[in-house]
Each structure stands twice: as structure tokens, then as C-alpha cells.
Amino acid sequence: QVQLVESGGGLVQAGGSLRLSCAASGRIGSSYSMAYTTMAWFRQAPGKEREFVGAIRWSFSVTDYADSVKGRFTISRDNAKSTVYLQMNSLKPEDTAVYYCAAGRPGWPSRTVQEYEYWGQGAQVTVSS
């Protein structure tokens, strides 16, 4: 079993900040398994398709971001906790969406939903204007 548990969503005013966390457990959560894993964040707004936000290649801590969030969002990871974070600054109303954590062992960079095997339950982020 593989589990990804997200936390940290909520309501914030435009220009504010939020941090999402995603803790991995199970087969993909051991320190050995994480070495070969990419963890990513996607988001889905009402009526829209799920879109890539950013990803981190666990072993090398290399990151990749969508142009829409570059310079505002930062992905980091805590190896000891098998946890990935999404720090979101300068939030805009258009960032409002359900944010999903994903994990897998795709190539790099990996920006499509199909490339990720495991998904979290989603965390609502609402940015008011």
C-alpha cells in the first residue's frame, strides 16, 4: 500500500501565503524507495482539467515548475519525514483549486497526470480577491 496524505489547505487573501504538506508512507515512503521517486503537485479548478504545478526529483532535490507559478511557489522535501512541501507565496485568485500531491517514478521532467502512479486526496486552496 502507498499513501499520500496532504494537509495545509485553506482560505487566504490575494497576496497571502500558504504551505501544503504531503507525507508519503508505505512502499514508497522508505528512505530507499524515495531515492528513485519524483513527487509532484497538480491542481484542478472547477470545470478545468488537472494541471501540473511543480515537481521534485527526490534524490537530487531538482525541481521543475509550471510557468504560471514560477517565482511564487517553491517545492521542498524533508527526507527524514518522507514529506514534500509546496510553499505558495503571492497567491492570486486564479490559484484557487484543489491541490493534489502525486508520486511515481517517471522520467524527468514529468508534467502529465498519466506519469504518476500514486495520488493524495486533495487539499482545497481558496484565494479571495
Helix content: under 10%
Strand segment count: 11
Q: What count of helical segments does DSSP give? A: 1
Supply Rg. 14 Å
Structural class: mainly beta
Report strand %: over 45%
Order of helices and strands: EEEHEEEEEEEE
Largest sheet: 7 strands, mixed
Note down, in words, how this protein is organized.
With 129 residues, the protein is mainly beta. The chain has one helix and eleven strands. It has one helix at residues 31-34; strands spanning 2-7, 10-13, 18-26, 38-44, 51-57, 62-65, 73-78, 83-88, 97-104, 118-119, 123-128. Strands 2, 4, 5, 6, 9, 10 and 11 form a seven-stranded mixed beta sheet that branches. A four-stranded antiparallel beta sheet has the order 1-3-8-7, with no helix packed on it. The longest helix is centred in the N-terminal third of the chain and has 4 residues, at 31-34. The chain starts with a strand and ends with a strand. 32% of the residues are buried.
Topology:
Blueprint: E1 2-7, E2 10-13, E3 18-26, H1 31-34, E4 38-44, E5 51-57, E6 62-65, E7 73-78, E8 83-88, E9 97-104, E10 118-119, E11 123-128
Parallel strand pairs: 2-11
Antiparallel strand pairs: 1-3, 3-8, 4-5, 4-9, 5-6, 7-8, 9-10, 9-11
Question: What's the quick description here?
Answer:
With 129 residues, this protein is mainly beta.
Labels describing this entry:
129 residues; mainly beta; 7-stranded mixed sheet; 4-stranded antiparallel sheet; globular
